[in-house]
């Protein structure tokens, strides 16, 4: 996931200290860009005006209680930003200092394959009626398999890795 951020200190507090991820020690170690590892995936966070994804990113992170403790530990230092976190039945939703939402799940083989730390999906909120066209685009132009489902609305799901998807809802 690539989004620009205006402050690497706040990003470090959220992504590294709060979520418990690691900053890539080899790539983009400057003060104008940072890459944060999530298993085999990464957040790319170059410095610029903040970008907010239209949707949310799904992460698998083991240890819900420890995650909640880490997020609570950065609350005071992130006061005055859009940072927040809330518990739900099967995930914890954390919002970064600029408004990007991240849903953190425990590992679940049935749901996410064998991922124990990773980014199984990125979900984009799209206009009603566009999912079918999106699902047609990816196989035709990029060669990525895609499906359309109807649940709580028409959803396009594009396979982009072994256990990774782009979801358009």
Brief account:
The chain is an alpha+beta fold and 169 residues long.
- What is the strand arrangement across the widest sheet? 5-6-7-4-8-11-10-9
- Bin the strand percentage: 35-45%
Radius of gyration: 16 Å
Low-confidence stretches: none
- Compute the average pLDDT: 93
Largest sheet: 8 strands, mixed
Helical content (DSSP H or I, runs of 4+): 10-25%
> What is the H/E order?
HEEEEHEEEHEHEEE
Number of helices: 4
Distance between the termini: 18 Å
Secondary-structure class: alpha+beta
Number of separate strands? 11
Shape: globular
Describe the structure.
The protein is of the alpha+beta class. It contains four helices and eleven strands. The protein has helices at residues 8-18, 64-74, 109-112, 131-142; strands at 22-23, 33-38, 41-46, 55-61, 84-87, 92-95, 101-105, 117-124, 146-150, 154-161, 164-168. It has an eight-stranded mixed beta sheet with strand order 5-6-7-4-8-11-10-9, covered by helices on one side. It has a three-stranded antiparallel beta sheet with strand order 1-2-3, covered by helices on one side. α1 (8-18) packs antiparallel against α2. The longest helix has 12 residues, at 131-142.
């Amino acid at each position: 996931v690539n989004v620009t951020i205006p402050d690497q200190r706040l990003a470090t507090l959220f992504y590294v200290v709060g979520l418990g991820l690691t900053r890539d020690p080899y790539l983009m170690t400057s003060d104008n860009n940072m890459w944060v590892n999530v298993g085999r995936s990464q957040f790319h966070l170059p410095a610029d005006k903040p970008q907010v994804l239209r949707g949310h990113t799904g992460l698998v992170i083991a240890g819900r209680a420890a995650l909640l403790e880490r997020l609570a530990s950065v609350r005071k230092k992130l006061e005055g930003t859009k940072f927040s976190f809330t518990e739900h039945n099967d995930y914890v939703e954390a919002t970064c200092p600029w408004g990007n939402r991240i849903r953190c799940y425990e590992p679940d083989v049935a749901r996410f394959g064998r991922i124990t730390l990773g980014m199984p999906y990125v979900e984009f909120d799209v206009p009603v009626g566009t999912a079918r066209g999106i699902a047609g685009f990816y196989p035709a132009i990029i060669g990525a398999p895609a499906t359309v489902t109807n649940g709580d609305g028409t959803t396009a799901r594009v396979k982009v890795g072994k256990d990774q998807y782009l979801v358009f809802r």
